[in-house]
């Protein structure tokens, strides 16, 4: 029995614990936050409107007092010889809520009526040249004071009067301002609530609901990323949310496709790991039999036995590295200068085209062309391309399409670069598969194909620092391989020459 391929498990490395993702909060959501944000913003706007409103109310009430005083002054001034009974004077002052009324005409100031004039006047308010800032500060000063101070209001007069003066109490005017403020606050609260509700509904339907839909799609896709049920269906919106929905849908589809591809790779790796051990033992037994077959003196056996041994050695080596594509990188190429013609001949014989007369074989390689490459890896690259070409020609012929069936390999050197081309006269590469031509499981169009040939070939060519691509505008399919020579350090060459 062969030794098992299992590796000991490292107990010191603990498996990574899945990160705990916070779930969406069931408390105050985005809608509630928007509502709580909208209400204070509307209230701030109401406060900014209240300041000029209360100042304007205060100025208007003062002007009303001045207008009423001007009317009373006309009545008092119209009395014969200015003689007005005290009872009538008090009634007039009470009607305009004033304690005294005086006017100035020319150089004379005249007291028209008075009743219980206070000993001191707390504030003088001149309405003739009052600015907006003075109106605001004066209104708030009156509201913040306490008590019933006496104030003097100076305003423009009527007729020949230059101005009119009124002495009145501050408390009634302050009460009116309080009443106006209370009514304004109630109206502002109602407007704030209605505005916040309308803004909330608008934001909820325009932004919050689509964001919840995006969030639900993300959470559902995270729980089961391999199911198409969690992929969001984009709406017809043309704004940023519509763009986000479409981008999220494309990202989810790409991620689901990639995860399915990874799952297929994992399944392939598991299946190969199960058969790898037994297949390697069978190939080893076949190698022992081929060694015994090489000792048979038959000339035909002596001719084909080395090729059989070489094929079995390659098969065993491929079996050993079967898992390298899915689990690790390919081994670094063991590069050296090799002649390309023997490799091409071996590829033809291994692909079974030496005895196949239905497919013409053309090799147009420069005489003595050498390539700086790993011979086994270059053999694998060419074999994959030739087999793909042969299978394309067979499929093309089985569909009833006539024409010449030919595989052509050309090789030349341009300076320090070797260029190889493998072409066929088949149907060519379909346009829809060209975008993912060198990706695993993307290009196999025949039953039983794995879609790994071109992916492995591209990986091996890139390991040599080269490039492989499909040549456009040719009959059938033409793949060009470019392998540059390794740079040579002049110092190492000089050292070798000195040692020689």
TrEMBL record:
GO terms for biological process: phosphorelay signal transduction system. Its EC number is 2.7.13.3. Residues 1-18 have a biased composition (Low complexity). The chain crosses the membrane at residues 34-59, 184-207. Keywords: ATP-binding, Kinase, Membrane, Nucleotide-binding, Phosphoprotein, Transferase, Transmembrane, Transmembrane helix, Two-component regulatory system. It catalyses: ATP + protein L-histidine = ADP + protein N-phospho-L-histidine. Residues 274-487 form the Histidine kinase domain. It comes from the Bacteria. Pfam families: HATPase_c. The keyword Transcription does not apply. Residues 1-25 are annotated as: Disordered. GO terms for molecular function: ATP binding; protein histidine kinase activity. This is histidine kinase.
């Amino acid at each position: 029995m062969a030794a098992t391929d299992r590796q000991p498990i490292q107990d010191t490395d603990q498996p990574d614990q899945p990160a705990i993702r916070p779930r969406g909060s069931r408390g105050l959501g985005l809608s509630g936050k928007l509502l709580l944000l909208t209400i204070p913003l509307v209230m701030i706007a109401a406060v900014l409107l209240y300041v000029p409103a209360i100042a304007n109310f205060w100025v208007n009430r003062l002007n009303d007092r001045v207008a009423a005083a001007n009317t009373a002054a006309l009545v008092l001034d119209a009395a014969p010889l200015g003689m007005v009974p005290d009872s009538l004077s008090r009634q007039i002052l009470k009607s305009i809520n004033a304690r005294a009324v005086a006017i100035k005409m020319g150089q004379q100031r005249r007291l028209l009526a008075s009743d219980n004039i206070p000993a001191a006047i707390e504030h003088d308010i001149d309405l003739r040249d009052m600015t907006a800032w003075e109106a605001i500060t004066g209104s708030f000063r009156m509201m913040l004071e306490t008590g019933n101070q006496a104030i003097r209001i100076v305003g423009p007069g009527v007729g020949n009067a230059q101005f009119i003066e009124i002495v009145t109490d501050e408390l009634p005017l302050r009460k009116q301002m309080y009443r106006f403020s209370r009514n304004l606050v109630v109206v502002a609260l109602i407007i704030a609530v209605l505005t916040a509700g309308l803004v909330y509904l608008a934001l909820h339907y325009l932004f919050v609901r689509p964001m919840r839909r995006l969030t639900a799609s993300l959470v559902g896709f995270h729980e089961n990323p391999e199911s198409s049920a969690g992929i969001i269906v984009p709406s017809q919106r043309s704004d940023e949310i519509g763009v986000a929905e479409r981008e999220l849908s494309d990202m989810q589809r790409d991620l689901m496709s990639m995860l399915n591809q990874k799952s297929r790779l994992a399944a392939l790796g598991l299946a190969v790991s199960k058969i790898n051990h037994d297949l390697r033992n069978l190939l080893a037994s076949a190698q022992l039999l081929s060694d015994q077959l090489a000792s048979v003196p038959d000339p035909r056996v002596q001719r084909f036995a080395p090729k059989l041994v070489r094929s079995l050695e390659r098969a065993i080596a491929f079996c050993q590295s079967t898992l390298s594509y899915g689990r690790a990188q390919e081994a670094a190429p063991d590069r050296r200068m090799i002649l390309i013609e023997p490799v091409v001949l071996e590829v033809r014989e291994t692909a079974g085209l030496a005895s196949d007369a239905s497919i013409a074989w053309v090799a147009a390689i420069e005489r003595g062309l050498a390539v700086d490459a790993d011979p086994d890896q270059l053999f694998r690259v060419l074999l994959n391309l030739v087999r793909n070409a042969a299978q394309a020609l067979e499929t093309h012929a089985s569909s009833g399409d006539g024409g010449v069936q030919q595989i052509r390999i050309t090789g030349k050197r341009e300076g320090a670069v070797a260029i190889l081309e493998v072409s066929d006269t088949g149907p060519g590469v379909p346009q829809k598969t060209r975008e993912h031509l060198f990706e695993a499981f993307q290009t196999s169009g025949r039953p039983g194909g794995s879609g790994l040939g071109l992916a492995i070939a591209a990986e091996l060519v890139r390991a040599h620092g080269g490039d492989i691509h499909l040549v456009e505008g040719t009959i059938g399919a033409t793949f060009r391989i470019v392998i540059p020579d390794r740079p040579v350090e002049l110092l190492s060459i000089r050292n070798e020459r000195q040692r020689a």
